[in-house]
Write a structure and sequence with these properties.
By secondary structure, this protein is an alpha/beta fold. The chain is built from 20 helices and 15 strands. The termini are far apart. Bound molecules: flavin mononucleotide.
């Protein structure tokens, strides 16, 4: 029975409000309900169709609300009993139900800090100012910033470029020189861009992400590195240059026992897009630790790409079983170069200079042309990964800021610098970072996370959970839908183009015609005293003071 106290002269909106109120009164005071039922029954109240429907809906609404409230109360009671009886969490036991909010707020805090509280230069691993630069570059929107810099230029470690009183005039700008890697190989690689895509395996990042990188790199004229997960059809689809990485599991070029298969290696080299081979000795984020791709992520394409069974967890060893010392490393490099005819080098995060002394001595002893690596990729101790133990992430391996000049100088010391190209990686995602690396001694800079930002990554830090909200590092098809490879390929290309342009602007301001002419005299670093020192003097001083740098007798 539908009942209502009075309807005459009231608007529809007010009527609905009155209904809601009246329904509650009815629930609380059953006498009032009986009274109005009687009134309607006796014909004292007449209702229009709209009023009847509204009343009906309101009844459902209020009933549902009460039902939900009832269930809520039951849940709270249930949680109270569970919390106070469990023994694992002290907070929940001492403060049943309310204690649970701690976990909730802790989770939400990550997002709140990022959006509301963290200052522009505060966040880790990448602060908002740096990410914003990449986003703007990738979207090709106005890159200018108003009013002034939010960076403190007197903080120790700040890089300052040595501007020339007479910058290079527009008409004197020069195109960046190409650089040949492995000039003695049967097929040397002439690389055009100084900024390229660092190793990220298909598996750690999604299929649309790989497609977008491949297409974007082709547009931009830079290379992409396959990462240790092998070469998939998606790497090839854009037509960009490719560096094939040989990881510890030798995915894509392994036999059934997991050893290097020369026929597969030859087949890999037959792809004209594959320009060089990189042996991964270690990765900055997790030196001495292999990768794990859970079985659920080993789809048909990933299984085919890696050369492993579908659905089985893909676990790579923590080192190469066949490379246990410097000589074996040189043997392997020479073997890969011989089979493929293409440049071969290795990637590692540096832990000290002793290894480089050994390496350089061995190369000189055995023959520079045949045994010198064509390139060395230096990763930083604070490099990125899809997943790694926190202790290795936080504390294993030195920072590229220290190791790039250190290794460069070691190679110069042994007279090998002209034979070995240096590629630097590790949070080098803005023009300042890249220009610093070129000044400090890098021939090329590569980035992984910079390109993830260009693909739309928001630093949600969920690469290891399959829940990446932007579709970059997940195999969840629903989440991948957000990443359109065509649009994101353009962003990847824009990012490289803007990087080249702005590093060019730094070079011109320093009085040289193009980025490759930058050297150590063009940058200074602020010391603890707040004064800056030119890189050429700073690193020479370090070399003089540090016994590890001294020449072997
Ligand atoms: C999602 C992800 C996957 C990666 N996969 C590989 C890999 O397969 N092999 C490798 O040598 N490095 C890998 N890296 C490390 C990067 O290639 C790079 O060396 C490191 O992240 C530093 O560059 P960045 O600071 O620009 O990210 C990966 C990094 C990320 C973020």
């Amino acid at each position: 029975m539908l009942t209502v106290p009075c309807t005459g002269g009231v608007s529809d909106d007010d009527f609905i409000l009155v209904l809601g109120f009246w329904r509650l009164v009815q629930m609380l005071f059953p006498e009032a309900k009986k009274l109005t039922e009687k009134m309607v029954y006796e014909g004292e109240l007449l209702m229009s169709g709209f009023e009847m429907n509204s009343l009906f809906l309101m009844e459902i609404f209020v009933d549902s609300l009460l039902f939900i409230l009832g269930v809520g109360v039951l849940c709270i009671v249930y949680m109270y009993i569970v919390d106070s009886r469990q023994t694992k969490h002290a907070i929940r036991r001492n403060f049943p139900v309310v204690g649970r909010f701690r976990y909730f707020f802790e989770h939400l805090g990550e997002f709140f800090r990022q959006y509301f509280f963290a200052m522009d230069r505060e966040e880790m691993p990448f602060n908002r100012a740096k990410r914003a630069w990449v986003y703007r570059a990738a979207k090709n929107v106005d890159g200018t910033v108003a009013f002034g810099s939010s960076k403190s230029i007197s903080e120790p470690g700040a890089v300052l470029f040595v501007t020339h009183p007479f910058p290079v005039l527009t008409e004197d700008y020069a195109a960046t020189q190409t650089l040949i890697i492995g000039p003695h190989c049967r097929q040397p690689f002439e690389a055009t861009s100084f900024f390229n895509v660092s190793a990220m395996s298909f598996g750690a990042i999604s299929q649309p992400a790989v497609s977008a990188l491949s297409r974007g790199a082709a547009k931009a004229g830079c290379w992409i590195n396959t990462g240790e997960g092998g070469l998939s059809p998606h790497h090839l689809e854009g037509g960009s240059d490719i560096v094939f990485q040989i990881g510890t599991a030798k995915y894509g070029v392994r036999d059934e026992a997991g050893k290097l298969d020369d026929e597969k290696l030859l087949a890999m080299a037959a792809h004209p897009q594959v320009k060089m081979f990189e042996i991964k000795i270690s990765q900055g984020a997790k030196p001495g630790k292999g990768g794990i791709l859970p079985g659920i992520k080993v789809t048909q394409v990933i299984a085919m790409t890696r050369g492993i069974p579908i659905g089985e967890a893909s676990i790579s060893p923590n080192g190469h079983a066949d490379i246990r010392n410097v000589d074996q490393l040189l043997d392997m490099l020479a073997h890969v170069r011989e089979i493929t005819g293409k440049p071969a080098g290795f990637k590692l995060v540096v832990g000290g200079t002793r290894f480089f002394d050994e390496l350089c001595e061995a190369v000189k002893q055995r023959g520079v042309e045949e045994f010198a690596p064509d390139f060395i990729t230096l990763d930083s101790g604070d490099g990125g990964t899809g997943a790694a133990p926190q202790s290795l992430l936080d504390s294993a391996g030195l920072n590229i800021r220290e190791t790039l000049p250190m290794v460069n100088d070691k190679l110069v010391e042994y007279g090998l610098r002209d034979h070995i190209r240096l590629i630097a990686a590790g949070k080098l995602i803005t023009p300042t970072d890249v220009a610093w690396a070129l000044c400090a001694g890098a021939d090329f800079v590569v980035s992984a996370r910079g390109f993830m930002f260009a693909l739309g990554c928001i630093q949600a830090m969920q690469c290891n959970k399959n829940t990446c909200p932007t579709g970059v590092a997940t195999h969840d098809k629903d989440l991948q839908q957000g990443l359109d490879p065509t649009d994101k390929a353009t962003r990847v290309a824009n990012y490289v183009a803007q990087m080249e342009q702005e590093v060019g602007a730094i070079a011109h301001s320093c009085g040289v015609c193009e980025p490759r002419q930058l050297n150590r005299s063009h940058a200074r670093i602020v010391t603890e005293l707040g004064q800056s020192v030119p890189l050429d003097i700073l690193y020479r001083k370090q070399a003089e003071q540090n016994p590890l740098f001294s020449k072997p007798s």
